[in-house]
From TrEMBL:
Belongs to the class-IV pyridoxal-phosphate-dependent aminotransferase family. Pathway: Amino-acid biosynthesis; L-leucine biosynthesis; L-leucine from 3-methyl-2-oxobutanoate: step 4/4; Amino-acid biosynthesis; L-valine biosynthesis; L-valine from pyruvate: step 4/4; Amino-acid biosynthesis; L-isoleucine biosynthesis; L-isoleucine from 2-oxobutanoate: step 4/4. Keywords: Amino-acid biosynthesis, Aminotransferase, Branched-chain amino acid biosynthesis, Pyridoxal phosphate, Transferase. It catalyses: L-valine + 2-oxoglutarate = 3-methyl-2-oxobutanoate + L-glutamate; L-leucine + 2-oxoglutarate = 4-methyl-2-oxopentanoate + L-glutamate; L-isoleucine + 2-oxoglutarate = (S)-3-methyl-2-oxopentanoate + L-glutamate. It comes from the Bacteria. Its EC number is 2.6.1.42. GO terms for biological process: isoleucine biosynthetic process; L-leucine biosynthetic process; L-valine biosynthetic process. It comes from Auraticoccus cholistanensis. Its cofactor is pyridoxal 5'-phosphate. This is Branched-chain-amino-acid aminotransferase.
């Protein structure tokens, strides 16, 4: 049975003036709305205590399991304001499906997909005035789940907390879309076969931070990992999937297994044929990419994810040098795919795939 998330309104919501000041320059992930959706699971009773409540801190015991064993997962998605004022989600049941896949891998309880989407809808309805309008603004949504039982023992937690928080987000590229530089990590790997690479859990991101810092020292925005076994096959970026456009009009991306099954990644595969591209999921060696950049066989490279949608990559770097992608600017295919996806999310083109989910 689907959970119900009834509203328990905040007694002290932000004033209209305060909220409008934040929406004028929201940034990303720094401001949060007045409410959050919550539910609790116990091994004895299952899911319960579901509601939309005032935003606020959790009280956790020093022995809370997540602090010691990192048993947690999360999702990232957005609510979009269309020109007519309506508010929509993009493929929320796909996020729900991935959330449960992550839960299974991290030995956490699954949440019915209907309850997952209901929690999102209830929170967005309660804080609908926080959904910005104009440009590429949106309301970023962060569902997450963590082991909340207080115990020191290596086993699955018997008590789990679920929550959804929301944060208004400005345009990722406030000054226009700019190609980024990517560092090729030779020392660190992101995930191994049989590991947690396909789960959206915080530990994967924590493990990438030292490599991300290395990338920053070399003037790069992100790091690209290779596989953990042979150190030759392209994996993904620290927080995004990656695509390669070839001179044969193929849109190539690494196959699933140790990488996260991105919702944006999946949408791009579906959209590719509409732009005359053949999507290909396969193993891709780093050497193939570097040789392709030299020969022209690889014409464009871009990254994709919820936050930035599609990000053009202008160059790759490693200890041996710099490898420019095309002319170093956003490629034509990259730009067309990005615009097609944004037009769909913001209601500027018909939703022929049935991906958009109206809230109000």
């Amino acid at each position: 049975m689907s959970l119900k998330f009834d509203l328990r309104p905040s007694a002290a919501p932000r004033s209209d003036a305060e909220r409008e000041a934040i929406l004028a320059d929201p940034g990303f992930g720094t401001h949060f709305t007045d409410h959050m959706a919550v539910a609790t699971w116990t091994a004895q009773d299952g899911w319960g205590d579901s509601a939309v409540v005032p935003y606020g801190p959790f009280q956790v015991d020093p022995a809370t399991a997540v602090l010691h064993y990192a048993q947690e997962i999360f999702e990232g998605m957005k609510a979009y304001r269309h020109a007519d004022g309506s508010v929509w989600l993009f493929r929320p049941f796909k996020n729900a499906e991935r959330f449960n896949a992550s839960a299974r891998r991290m030995a956490l309880p699954e949440l019915a997909e209907e309850s997952f989407v209901e929690s999102i809808e209830a929170l967005v309805e309660a804080d609908e005035s926080w959904v910005p309008a104009g440009g590429e603004t949106s309301l970023y949504l962060r569902p997450f789940m963590f082991a909340s039982e207080a115990f020191l023992g290596v086993r699955s937690a018997q008590r789990v907390q679920y929550c959804v928080i929301a944060s208004p987000a400005g345009s990722y590229f406030s000054g226009g879309v700019r190609p980024v530089s990517i560092w090729l990590s030779r020392e660190y790997t992101r995930a191994a076969p049989g590991g947690t690479g396909a789960a959206k859990c915080g530990g994967n991101y924590a493990a990438s931070l030292v490599a991300q810092a290395e990338a920053a020292r070399h003037g790069c925005s992100q790091v690209l990992f290779t596989d953990a076994v042979e150190r030759r096959w392209v994996d993904e970026l620290g927080g995004m999937n990656v695509y390669f456009v070839t001179d044969r009009d193929e849109l190539v991306t690494p196959e699933l297994g140790t990488i996260l099954e991105g919702v944006t990644r999946d949408a791009i595969i579906a959209l590719a044929p509409e732009l005359g591209l053949t999507p290909v999921e396969r193993r891709v060696s780093l050497q193939e990419i570097l040789d392709g950049l030299r020969s022209g066989a690889v014409r464009e490279i871009f990254a994709c994810g919820t936050a930035a949608v599609i990000t053009p990559i202008g160059e790759l770097k490693d200890v041996e040098g710099t490898y420019q992608v095309g002319d170093g600017q956003a490629g034509q295919i990259t730009s067309r795919l990005r615009q097609a996806l944004l037009d769909l999310q913001y209601g500027r083109t018909p939703d022929t795939h049935g991906w958009m989910h109206r809230i109000r």
